[in-house]
Amino acid sequence: MGTVSGARIAVAGAGAFGSAxxxxxxxxxxxxxxxxxxxxxxxxxxxxAGMLAPASEALFxxxxxxxxxxxxxxxxxxxxxxxxxxxxxxxxxxRIEGDASWLAGIEARRxxxxxxxxxxxDGAPLLGEDWRLDAxxxxxxxxxxxxxxxxxxxxVAVTGYQNGVLSLSDGRAERFDALVLATGAAVRDGAxxxxxxxxxxxxxQILRLDHDLGAGSxxxxxxVYLCPGAPMVVGATMEFGRDDLTADPLKTAPLLQAATxxxxxxxxxxxxxxxGVRASTVDGLPxxxxxxxxxxxxxxxxxxxxWLLAPxxxxxxxxxxTNKDPGPDAAQFDARRFDREPEA
Length: 344
Fold this sequence. Notes:
By secondary structure, the protein is an alpha+beta fold. The chain has a single domain, classed as FAD/NAD(P)-binding domain. The model has no long low-confidence stretch (mean pLDDT 93). The longest helix is centred in the C-terminal third of the chain and has 16 residues, at 306-321. The chain contains 9 helices and 20 strands. α1 packs parallel to α8 and α2 (54-60) runs antiparallel to α3 (68-76). The protein is globular and about 60 Å long.
């Protein structure tokens, strides 16, 4: 399914996927309106360190390891995608610190994955290929870029889509040629698209500390990362099956403890907790493509990699909606891949 010239496209969700898709569509000359009731940045994409880090994801997240090559291709799209937006891509890498036994385990896994053997001058292991951006600044830049090309953003939720008619939480009904569903974990009941029933929530909490780690690499230790900036970000929990937005000190206290092991001067630092809920599939890749529901295109289920995958997913969305070849990576993201009967 595709759209015709002059189509109007609705996007539900203004996180990394929704905002990037809106920008890609606007760049393609498509009329697009983004609907999200939350304040800008008040979503899982805003509660993030903005890592563009295929090596780290493969090394520290089992679900991401099989997709290392794909994640690298996604990262490589970022410089061109961010062109003209004023998004700063920081390429200082990820420094790994910890006790000898933990580092030995990480080194063994690095060899299995075939990751480059990078080290800093003091001998600390470094994942030099990993990048990052400021998540909140990037969301604002994507929104500004899309808006500058004619995209509209409205603070209202999408409640339904049928026969080309979009229903909104303020009671309006408007005609759109297609709906891009980029709501993350917010919609998993199958009402807008049955494929969303395959999504599972992951609650994530980060801490923003009144401490400046200084410029340079992200520091990764056992069960924690420290992201430079003011405030500094310490993260992140991964609480499978939870979708509440309540700050939980029992979960965040170990983060701060692990951080102080790496940087003792963080003891006593004031910390603000932020909570986001992500969605994931069983294979760790998002659902991107046409739903069984006519006119609905999915771009959901980013797991930990919403920022890393955003340009790739946005390109797929734009290709599907402009009748272009989505490319060789499309099959891995097929939105209906979990619907099919297993082969005999």
